[in-house]
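Summary for the steering committee. The consortium agreed at its last meeting that each partner would contribute one worked example illustrating the joint modelling workflow. Our contribution is presented below. We chose a case with several input lines so that the handling of multiple components could be demonstrated. No manual editing was applied between input and output; the record is shown as generated.
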Amino acid sequence: MGEYALLYILFAPFAGALALIFVSNRQPLLVRGIAASAAFVSLAASLYIFYGYDTVQGGFQFVQKFAWSKELGIALYLGVDGIGTPLVLASSILLFAGIFVSWHIKDRAKEFYIWLLILAAATIGVFMSLDLFFLYFFYEMSVIPMYLLLGMWGSHTKKYLEMTDPEGLKQRDSVGFIFNFGSNSKEYAAMKLVLFLSAFAVAALMGILLIYKFSGLNTFDILVLREQANLMNIPVLGTTLDKIIWVLVFFGFASIAPIWPLHSWSPVGHAAAPAATSMLHAGVLMKLGHFSIIRVAFEILPETTRELMPIAAVLCMFSIIYGGFVAFYAKDTKYVIGYSSSSHMGYVFLGMAALNYISLSGAVIYMFAHAMATGMLFAMAGWVYDQTHTRDIPSLGGLSNKMPFISGCFIVGCMASIGMPGTVNFVAEIMIVVGSWNKYPLQVIVAMLGIVLTLAYLFKMMRGLFYGPMNQKYSHAHDAVGTVDRLPLLMMITISIGFGIFPMHLYDVVRSGVDPLIARITHVVPVAESNEGLRSVKGAAATTDHLAIPMVSNTPITQVSEAPRGGQE
Amino acid sequence: MSFSLNLSLSDLLLLLPEIFLTCWLCVVITIDFVSPRLPKERLAYLSVGGLLATLGCLAWFDMNQVSGTLFGNMFVLDRMAIFFKIFILGSTILVILASIEYVDRFTLFRGEYYALVVMSALGMMFMASANDLLSVFVSLEFSTLGFYILVSYLRDDLASNEAGLKFFILGVFAAGLFAYGISLVYGETGKLVFSDMTSAPATPGLIIGFLLIFAALGFKIGAVPFHSWIPDTYHGAPTPVTAFLSIAPKGAALAILLRIFIVALGTFKPTWIYLLVAVSIVSMTYGNIVAIAQRNIKRLLAYSGIAQIGNVLIGLAAGTKMGNDAILFYLLAYLFANIGAFAVVIAVSQAIGRDEIEDYRGLGRRSPFLAFSMLLFLLSLAGVPPLAGFVGKLYIFIAAIKEGLYTLITVGLINIVISMYYYLIVVKQMYINEPIDPSPISISGPMKAVIYVGLAGTLAIGIYPQPFTDWVVAATLMFANFVTPAAAVTPPSLLIGG
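What follows is the complete predicted structure of the assembly.
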């Protein structure tokens, strides 16, 4: 049974969605039951692979391979390494939590759960794809459900109705959505999200097709490509091909991450989305970007990554500071959390840019940690919105009287998001900071400022929502009392704090995935004799110094790190 | 050139599908005349029965690899011809099933409608087998004749008459171009059969002749700049005819284009590739950008069809065996998605009486089945995984990138994003907007069957394409001798599209 675990994780939500098609909306309990049990199967199998992952052996485990198209060289090739495993777990946790967070959806509940399950399954599919084609397949597949989830169950931003002509329905439906949708409508958010992500996804697809063409191997298999594809030193357009591919792949996938100049779809999308969708969106969908960059750019073009990753180091500063400031001034709860997410994704880019064992492991753990923290925050923002039907912070206040449980959880969520010791975010943040200090001290200082900013805007929002005088309009609001409502929050809090106190297994798993990758990237190829080559040699030397840092005692990992391409399969 | 008209019985076997269908056509017409009181849907099922029998016969041919040529190479039955015949018959069957309800709108000649559809299909079957310029011309005109009548079948509707007239005038003009092209090519080479022309020198007369022929076939498939009839004709024609027009003739004309470009002109690939690259880029971009401004679903699908043809031409520009496979595969994906989308349009217009995109408001509530089907069909046309269109597009892109057509692929990829916008506008109307009149929409049985077939095809090709790729790879095997090893002819350049 164990070796098929990935298939259960991936196909349980699909099967659930398929089963839901044949169920009527008149049986709400059955609908929710099917969705929840599909998510539960996925969660159970994810826990199984997370704890069953052999960190000593490392490499890709639970591998499944089915030929899909011989002519095109495509196989449904699934497998997880130390980087994919925690992200698969995070996805299925958030899916499971998301089902319960959206338990009270009345309008077309069946369709909602179908799209939510497909969204989550596609996301999970990316995290376990070892085939470039399927990576893109699932990536693009995760974008479309967002359109429907935002459009059908989302909400307009405040004052949307005042800004559009009451009789102007027709006008809004015509062409030119930028002018006619009303830029704070959910239709605008949904369309912007899909078009933005698709536009950059096709850039990444172009990069993937170029890899396919110039490797000449007639395969999309990442493991074959990373060993055998020789894409270096092909001159083209005044530069080399590998750089063009890298830039296409990096920015193509970084748009969903979202890195600074490409972030504008994200807060709008978060604000318009229903709570469970925001959770999945901020929690795992954004990580598709980092993960795909690691999987494609880091694995297949390690030397180019070493050369060009400073781009990310520069852009991540803007992400952190810009996102933080906008979050501070935003008045909409979901905008605050949305911008905070895009700011926090800057840390992940910083950890990735520094390219050493500690910082990259920190980045991966941060992805997991952020999924939990932001999932909690969005779930609670969704609860507040459901109760008060507003997300406008200034008009809210004093809700802690009405909802003590939610406000208590909110404090925990804020603490986790800030990175308080005791939550897994702390572990991740400290690793990113320590790991990147030698290479990018400026960025680390900026990241520290970002943490201060996080503190400022989250506390400001917490005060605005839960403390101070209460608006009597919201006196009917009530707390989450049912098990169903409390379960997702308690689950995410438990995981966040649990891994914060006992991070060892998570750390071992992540290191077993990160070590061979970093070894490949910092492993200097003697062929490079140009100036650039020399520079990269120095950079590599600086990064390999960190091998000596005894971050946490960890015997099995050093074994893996000594063998560069740590025994895959 | 020597014609031998000594047909043996085994030669007649190659013509069996056409002969059978001709007889069946006569039977259908006769029954309509003999018993005018017979409900017309019986005639529809009768036609479908004949078409199914023909389809079965062709499937048997395909499995037993029956092949051969007739009439001094004028008529060829190879696996590609069989593929296109199955394609044409499949779309004809689906169109007839989708029009059973719609036919009630015709005031007169309801019975002849089915006969005309089958007659056009018969003409297109000959097109799929045509192996020289004369038989191409004759079969092309034969099939178009039926369409001229079908397009203007709504006698009292001004738009339908206008559509018919426009189609007729431009169609006849294209036929003239074609005939002139044939005369030039024949004058230069003295040959009519495609496979004899391979060694002809590139004289100006030959080039102009083939350009004229390309223009005429470009008219059939609706590639820019030969597209001007498409929107009005699609808009005005009865919707089932539009569906038919948007699929079957494109397939048949592409069969001829493949034979001309790969077999007859294979050695001139470095020259014609620029033509195809240019036409493909313009078709995709024009089709998609103009589709954004459409408010009528039929016009939207018309422009989307122009853009889809641009995509198909990428595969033709690649000019390799894989490019041909990709074209055939893409056509399969296009068949299911397009016929499905038109079936939904017919079902909605039966209930509402109009085809504006606005009328799709809240379809998700009025008929979840129709809305969900339309969603999948449109997303397949847009090229979203896990649907057929995505695999089709990727197949074409992979074939093209192997030939180094970077510009073309870049434009194609950008166009995917552009097209997503207008497809999603329809999705928005169906799902996000609330209906004005929430009464549910009922769907007739045959229509449901068509939509189910469309859904099954769209999903099956997208989720597990292996059987379909096997089929198309086998279908173009005979091209392997003609396909130019392009990499040797044109060194790959990253700057130029060609």
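Residues 484-498 of chain B have pLDDT under 50 and may be disordered. Chain B has 20 helices and two strands.
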